[in-house]
Specification:
Layout: H1 9-21, H2 29-36, H3 40-56, E1 61-66, E2 69-74, H4 79-85, H5 96-108, E3 111-112, H6 113-120, H7 125-133, E4 137-143, E5 149-154, H8 156-161, H9 180-190, H10 202-227
Antiparallel strand pairs: 1-2, 3-5, 4-5
Helix pairs in contact: 1-3, 2-3, 5-7, 5-10
Length: 237
């Protein structure tokens, strides 16, 4: 397609729609420019125009920029309709344990399995393995200060699933804390600063931490419900 005639914007937009329709991952403007033979600037402009057109006409699909590229999604308004149509939808649901574990990794990465256990208070081996299989987290390397334990972080697929351009778009947990004490607790926990608590307060702290963790996982996955769209238009996962 290197000799594609893209002199008029309509031809380029059509080509971009066709390429994005068959792409299972977000595709960068540079990569699309290479395939179409158009200039990156032209591709960026065409993609932005397409995205605006879909929004203005309230189309059933949306074009969004996520994870360093562009990707087609179904409109959130049709989420329930698509859910009932795609039979495999329920198999992609994550358990509460998976939500909590993914939240810990998202906010504390790179983090080891022991690091996740320290926050959740329970062994998360099986959950972590499941998240790896789903492609939402991956190994980032090893931590020499933790006996060369494997560290984990989120993947590009995680950004795509939650409609995030980068990890900088993660909601700030402190913004959802009910008071200053809770904000301090979150700051200390996420920065690995030892908490000044007595042994008698340990159980209370764990309960408070669980509540904050639930808040974090709810924030992530409520955002997903609003922005996440199924892979229905692309064949699903």
């Amino acid at each position: 397609m290197s000799d594609l005639e893209v002199s008029d914007s309509g031809s380029l937009k059509g080509a971009l729609e066709a390429l994005l329709l068959v792409s299972s991952d977000a595709v960068s403007a540079i990569e699309l420019a290479k395939v179409t033979g158009a200039r990156p600037g032209e591709v960026e402009e065409a993609l932005a125009d397409l995205s605006a057109e879909y929004a203005d006409k309230n189309r059933g699909i949306q074009l969004r920029e996520v994870a360093g590229g562009w990707r087609l999604f179904t409109h959130p308004a049709y989420h329930d309709l698509v859910e009932s149509y795609v039979l495999s939808w329920d198999t992609r649901k994550l358990s509460q344990a998976a939500l909590e574990t993914l939240s810990v990794i998202a906010y504390q990465q790179p983090v080891t399995r022991e690091g996740v256990k320290a926050v959740r208070g329970v062994n998360s081996e099986g959950v972590i393995n499941s998240l790896i299989e789903k492609g939402l987290i991956k190994s980032l390397g090893r931590d020499p200060q933790q006996g060369n334990a494997i560290t984990y972080g989120t993947t590009k697929a995680f950004l795509e699933q939650f409609g995030l351009r980068s990890l900088k778009d993660l909601p700030d947990l402190e913004d959802f804390a009910p008071d200053e004490e809770s904000k301090r607790y979150i700051r200390e926990r996420l920065s690995d600063v030892p908490l000044s608590t007595s042994p008698e307060e340990a159980d209370e702290d764990m309960e408070e931490e669980d509540e904050l963790l639930d808040t974090g996982s709810d924030l992530l996955f409520n955002s997903a419900d609003d922005q996440e769209t199924t892979e229905g238009e692309h064949g699903g996962e």
